[in-house]
Amino acid sequence: MMSGHPGSPDPINVMSGEAANGAAKGASDGASDVVCDASTLNALAVDIGTDGVSELVMVFISETRQRLQRMATPACDAIQLTREAHTLKGGARTVGASHLGELAAAVELRPSTGGTIGAEELAALSAAFDAYMAEARHVVDLEAATA
């Protein structure tokens, strides 16, 4: 989609960044409670257009589904979990999945501080991912990426 200026992509206007962030916050006002940061997606839309953002989010969703499945397998050791969490952290932050990114950052550091990554942490990552997918559908036209 293009704005009235040739070559300028339209920002994502389903919800303003402030409204989307307010709707995405939980009971706390911490930055890591933002499920889907529309201001991040709007900034991306300026650079790559709304269709590009939709495609990027779709790729993130597809790859994250696979990543979480790999992380949940018993064969996934601490080194692989750390790598998967690191990659998830970067991808999540890129597409405005702030809460998921914060959880992934904590999981990434856990083995280096002597901790373990268990079912509870993986369930929290999955829940944050599910929340992001639900919220992203209100902010990004995910259908455009599959057309």
Characterization of this structure:
This protein has 147 residues and is mostly helical. It has a single domain (17-21, 31-146), classed as Four Helix Bundle (Hemerythrin (Met), subunit A). Helices cover 67% and strands 0% of the residues. Helix 1 packs parallel to helix 2 and helix 4 packs antiparallel against helix 5. The chain is elongated, with a radius of gyration of 16 Å.
Architecture blueprint of SSEs:
Layout: H1 17-24, H2 38-72, H3 78-94, H4 98-109, H5 119-139, H6 142-146
Helix pairs in contact: 1-2, 2-3, 2-5, 3-4, 4-5
CATH class: Mainly Alpha
CATH topology name = Four Helix Bundle (Hemerythrin (Met), subunit A)
H-E order: HHHHHH
Number of helices: 6
Brief overview, please?
With 147 residues, this protein is an all-alpha fold. The protein has one domain: Four Helix Bundle (Hemerythrin (Met), subunit A). The chain has six helices and no strands.
Quickly list its features.
147 residues, mainly alpha, Four Helix Bundle (Hemerythrin (Met), subunit A), 6 helices, 0% strand, elongated, disordered N terminus
